[in-house]
Amino acid sequence: MSELVQKTQKLDPATDFMVMHAFCVTYWARVDETLFRIFHHCIGPYEQSVILYYRIDSLSVRLDTTNEIVRSVLPKPARKSGDHDHPSVKAWKDAQKGFHDLLGVRRRLAHQQLSPRIDYAAIEKAAVEGGLSPFYHLEIHTSRHEGIRSRSADEQPLTIKDLQSHAVDLARLRQRLTEFYDNVLSKHVPKSPPSVPLLKSPRDPDTYLSKEERPPPESSLE
Description:
Blueprint: H1 2-8, H2 13-43, H3 46-54, H4 59-73, H5 87-95, H6 99-111, E1 113-118, H7 120-129, E2 136-141, H8 160-188
Antiparallel strand pairs: 1-2
Helix pairs in contact: 2-3, 2-4, 2-8, 5-8
């Protein structure tokens, strides 16, 4: 992740921004895939899991539905009130921590305007010191119509630094969900039937595979 951020910083401002924007969109798709793996493991039959999960258009609702299903298969407190959550329930809470907050940024990436902003300070600096330097940057901002709403009035534009931070947060979220799937959920739910082989993506070979079924990392294949 950090290597990608460093690489994009060597490009021009517009390309920097669009690369990070595309990376965030791609990583959201991977988070969605990982959430489906958890959903599928709890439900069981693959085709029925696909129908039920992808019948839901909203990722927020997919998360809430998966949350209910996961909690239904995890150990319940001995008493309805007063008892502490089982460690596996706490692990699930930790795994999805911050998910809904990140969805707010996802909405902005998908629906808000992208515009250039002129950096007049950079122009003046170049005029005085000579040489070339970026004199603009791109940002995602709330429209003047949406800004009338009180909940949107104080939204700050999303800059490339915000996108870089968002990408890191998504990587961490996916890692937590994967670790929950590998290390916690399998203890409470019997292993589901294997998914169809065509779902083993060459770009993301761990998709739908259990920890034991995954090939070794590329670094160990030398």
